Amino acid sequence: MYDHINKPKLDKDGRGSAAKKVTILGLFVNSGLSAGKFIAGIAGGSAAMIADAVHSLSDIVTDLMVYISVHVAQMEADEGHPYGHGRAETIGAAALGALLVLVGVLIMIDTTYSIAEGNISIPTWPALLAAILSIVFKETLYQYTARIGRELDNQAIMANAWHHRTDALSSIAALLGISGAMMGFPILDPLAAIVVALLIAEVGREICWNALKELMDTSLSPDDLKEIGIAISQTPGVLSYHELRSRKMGGDKFIDVHIEVQCNMSITEAHNVSENVRSQLKKLTGAIDVLVHADTESDMDYKVINLDRTLLEDQIMSIALEDKEILSVSHLVIHYITGKILIEFSVELNNSADINHCKDVVNRLRQELETKTKISQAAIRLKLTDELFD
To answer: What is the pTM (predicted TM-score) of this model?
Structure first.
């Protein structure tokens, strides 16, 4: 059950280490491809391959950005960042997306200018070979990086993986353009460069938009929230739940919820139920923090009662001890339910009185309290002195 939710398989340090390794691998591959594509593009006279080389060059920059964002996100929470540094991953993804859009626009502008100037050349086989090799290397790198990104639930790594995929797609466009130009249609090479630029810009836009949504505290998916709700409802002691909220911060998840428990539960019992819910949700989702608030009733329509407990205790004590037959008052518990004040406490009477007289004393006290104070209902326990056992 609950396998739908993506739970991290590694701790924070493990996630950071794995993310850095895949990013460094991409950095080395992109450096080699970028240099090779530039050489092949110039030697083969292909605008599409040069545009593809610029794309690979941008990959190097984004690899560095991802590495830095992962490193910052790995840092522990501190006084200035009590929720940790997970936003660094999201910020890195947003910056990466924005850079891709910029790269795509610049390539389109440059290629359009070249077409307008009539500066079109027919590419040769070095450009064709570079396009084929790029497709193989970049698709392989995408598959590996995307797998790591999904395992780590790391948006920056997934964004970088899609950057590798766009490089593979742009190399396919370049291959088609170069092939067409070599077959006698020179215009296809710069047109392929424009297609490459559009692919780059579109993926950049999507990555940037998703990252910006997360910066606005996007919730977990409806399916995730449904499974979380089932887990809460199945926890013993929980009557219902409401105000379930969640948000993501990079690969970190945060959840808070209000649960309803029986109104006669002690604070310690209600706290234990809350901790059980908290433990269940952390195991289920891998959330960094889960905040559970226990209510004795739905607080959507809760009526706040402004009451000083000390003053109420003094009132009860004063009224009770006016009756000379009451020796003491103890174990006072106050309940605030549906806008009403309910109390329960014990009174001590001398056991020389018969039981019926004791009941009369208790009933008289109950009526006085419900008449002279804000108390709606009083449950009074009778305690007899233990003189007979001395």
So the answer is: 0.52
